[in-house]
Design brief:
With 416 residues, the chain is of the alpha+beta class. The chain contains 14 helices and 20 strands. The protein folds into four domains: 89 residues, Rossmann fold (3-Layer(aba) Sandwich), CATH 3.40.50.20; 66 residues, Dna Ligase, domain 1, CATH 3.30.1490; 127 residues, ATP-grasp fold, B domain (D-amino Acid Aminotransferase, Chain A, domain 1), CATH 3.30.470.20; 97 residues, ATP-grasp fold, B domain (D-amino Acid Aminotransferase, Chain A, domain 1, 2-Layer Sandwich), CATH 3.30.470. Strands 13-12-9-10-11-14-18-16 form an eight-stranded antiparallel beta sheet, sandwiched between helices. Strands 3-2-1-4 form a four-stranded parallel beta sheet, with helices on both faces. Strands 5-8-6-7 form a four-stranded antiparallel beta sheet, with helices on both faces.
């Protein structure tokens, strides 16, 4: 393959390994991010300090630089832009309608009414009064979420009592994009999971399935995503069918999808889908777990090239552990070399600085850092992540020292 020119939307710190992997695979990378200091810009062949949604400026910039062969988005905010730019430049992509379906939780639910066995009841509301009426119609417990947001569990809360409706509606409105409606869903009880999926010519391949451990209620923030999920072969087959039918209903014919769902007593039920790789380090984790380089295959498909490897070649273990600390002002941070240099640690970091304040854990942006642990199986990876959490610490301004929370701190959820 001669060098293809790929426009990558999103240059955050988490995206750097994927950008480097694309370059190593032979792609010429143009990376766009409105933050001129975004680390991904420095990792690119050609940095473009341009807002992801400024499609006119992006098209003008890539045209001046000799054009591109494909566009991929690393973030939810860039999915519609990638489809728009690709359509205007005549490049392979999902349709703009499919991108709109995949970035609106209300549109997803409406499309998934065609697969009722994998969906749940819902209502879309615009006012607190409508929310009250919808909640009484659906019955408790419920999940409130913004129709459109920047992702990261922003504005997502569980409602267990009617007197919580007003606060949940306000949280969903504040966590969404401007003028976003609020989606209210009947709560799905079961283990929570995510799957990384390749899509080519309308066919899907599930690369890996993770199992999630969530923050304490009422918020629904991932504190760990562990691979491979402890699902039986029969359960996995049902997930494969769900993934295929979910992307079909949204009209997705190529690319990648990050599918979030619950596994209930009656089978898998969809939460939502992103028409992109999972966030952060998920593409690197999928590569380790499945043997398939998810992001490289996304780049190939964006350029109209068939995947070089469509189905998994391995099933290894990983733990995407998010570092959680009590609220307070940071004085100093310690991540010892015994953690950063350990063979099982793919990456580790604190995303805050001394002087920053740690707040309550309400969304993914409130997490303090990450530790990506790998192993031949899940038990090895989880043990590596636990050891790291025991060694990583923050000293607070009041003189107290706290280590990163371990999964035992969320035990009530893992056994619910």
């Amino acid at each position: 393959m001669h060098s293809k020119r790929i426009l990558i939307l999103g240059g955050g710190r988490y995206n750097v390994p994927s950008i480097r992997a694309a370059r190593e695979a032979g792609f010429f990378t143009l990376v766009a991010d409105r933050n001129a200091d975004a680390p991904g810009l420095a990792a690119a062949d050609k940095p473009l300090p341009i807002d992801l949604n400024d499609c006119d400026s992006l098209i003008a910039a890539v045209s001046r630089l000799g054009g591109i062969d494909g566009v991929v988005s690393m973030a939810e905010v860039g999915v519609r832009a990638a489809a728009n730019i690709s359509s205007r430049l005549g490049l392979p992509s999902v349709s703009e309608q499919s991108a709109a379906n995949a970035t609106s939780k209300a549109a997803m639910r409406r499309c998934w009414q065609r697969v009722p066995e994998y969906s749940t009841e819902f209502e879309v509301v615009a006012t607190p009064e409508q929310a009250e009426h919808a909640a009484r119609k659906l019955g408790l417990p419920l999940i409130f979420k913004p129709d459109r947001s920047f992702g990261g569990s922003r504005g997502v809360t569980r409602v267990n009592a009617f007197d919580e409706i007003a606060a949940a509606f306000a949280a969903a409105k504040s966590g969404g994009l401007s003028n976003s409606d609020v989606v209210i869903e009947r709560c799905i009880e079961g283990s929570e999971h995510s799957a990384e999926v390749l899509i080519w010519q309308g066919k899907t391949s599930v690369l890996c399935i993770g199992q999630k451990i969530k923050s304490l209620l009422p918020y629904r923030v991932d504190v760990s995503v562990q691979y491979p999920a402890r699902l039986t072969p029969t359960q996995q087959t049902k997930v494969f069918d769900m993934a295929q039918r979910a992307v079909d209903a949204l009209g997705l014919k190529q690319g990648v999808a990050h599918v979030e769902f619950a596994y209930t007593d009656h089978g898998p039920v969809l939460f939502e889908l992103g028409a992109r790789c999972g966030g952060g380090h998920t593409p690197q984790i999928a590569h380790h777990v499945s043997g398939v380089n998810e992001f490289m295959e996304a780049c190939r498909m964006a350029c109209g090239i068939a995947p070089s490897q469509f189905t998994p070649t391995a099933s290894r273990g990983a733990d995407y552990r998010f570092l959680v600390f009590p609220p307070g002002e940071i004085e100093s941070i310690e991540i010892p070399p015994s953690v950063t240099n350990h063979d099982c640690v793919l990456d580790v970091g604190i995303t805050l600085q001394p002087g920053n304040r740690i707040g309550p854990l309400h969304s993914t942006s409130d997490r303090a850092g990450f530790l990506v642990a790998a192993g031949e199986n899940l038990d090895e990876a989880a043990a590596c992540a636990d050891r790291g959490c025991q060694q990583i610490s923050i000293r607070y301004r009041d003189g107290s020292v706290h280590h990163a929370s371990e999964l035992l701190d969320f035990q009530e959820l893992t056994h619910s």
